[in-house]
Design a protein that fits this description.
Layout: H1 11-14, H2 18-31, E1 40-43, H3 51-57, E2 63-67, H4 70-79, E3 84-87, E4 101-105, H5 114-124, E5 130-136, H6 142-154, H7 169-176, E6 181-193, H8 201-207, H9 212-218, H10 222-233, E7 245-257
Parallel strand pairs: 1-2, 1-4, 2-3, 4-5
Antiparallel strand pairs: 5-7, 6-7
Length: about 260
């Protein structure tokens, strides 16, 4: 959904856990205050999951969706919620005119060099505009670290892919504080993942997002990689009697008003 060079996103697999992925976006949107005149940009809009909530909460503003995935944009177009949809690499995208809000849910963690990226986005805003961002902060948890470890064991001669990662909360505060009024916070969601036929639920949750670079790099060893990952996380996330699992999932949020 961003500028990361991988095969296109699969909306079907991504939407298996639509409600769990939507809740942090709604929490972020709920923290956005009144806006001045200007566009609302859904940066890394994906399939348009947040479009309905953005339209309802911010009526009267043009809604611009930006994403690099043609498959996701086709889904977003079907919502009928966007004034304009733009296929672009969000790492280099620039607004046509200063927006009142740049809203980015679970997208910017795929990009590098946040120390330059976040100020660049802030500089696009209209005076009094807001940059609202939510990103997973889960890379050190067994659910994510397990893909690194399984890949090293399964594909020892291949370079280990770079999975998405972000800075610490206080780093974002220090980075953004000179630019305006900033709030930074983290929330850990206890996600109840339903039983998945023939798969560990945590694998199902991660394989459509964080694990994509590892699964693509594994090539013919993909199934061996998956088996190694599942064997590894079984102890970290034990299955419940009904085959479901609990996954504590940490997310980082910030609001910057310039």
């Amino acid at each position: 959904m961003t500028g990361t060079r991988m095969a296109d996103w699969n909306p079907g697999t991504y939407h298996r856990f639509r409600d769990l992925r939507l809740r942090p976006a709604l929490d972020l949107l709920g923290a956005v205050g009144p806006l001045r005149d200007g566009d609302v940009v859904d940066l890394g809009c994906g399939s348009g999951t947040v479009a309905g909530a953005l339209t309802a909460r911010l009526a009267g503003h043009r809604l611009i969706g930006v994403d690099a995935s043609p498959a996701m944009l086709a889904e977003a177009r079907g919502t009928g919620m966007y004034t304009t949809l733009c296929e672009a690499d969000i790492a280099t995208w620039r607004a046509d005119r200063p927006p009142a809000l740049i809203f980015s849910n679970a997208a910017l963690h795929w990009l590098d060099e946040h120390a330059a990226l976040m100020p660049r986005l802030a500089r696009m805003l209209a005076p009094g505009g807001t940059l609202a961002v939510q990103m997973p902060h889960q890379s050190r948890a067994p659910s994510h670290r397990g893909w690194h470890r399984a890949f090293v064991r399964t594909c020892p001669r291949q370079p280990v892919p770079d999975g998405p990662d972000i800075l610490e909360a206080d780093d974002y505060f220090d980075l953004l504080c000179p630019l305006g009024a900033v709030q930074v916070w983290e929330t850990e969601y206890l996600q109840h993942l339903p039983a998945a036929n023939g798969a560990h639920p945590v694998r199902r949750f991660t394989e459509s997002t964080f694990a994509r670079p590892f699964l693509e790099a594994a090539g013919a060893a993909r199934e061996t990689l998956i088996a190694a990952y599942e064997a590894q996380i079984a102890a970290d996330y034990p299955l419940r009697a009904d085959g479901s699992a609990l996954l504590p999932f940490r997310r980082l949020f910030f609001l910057l008003t310039v």
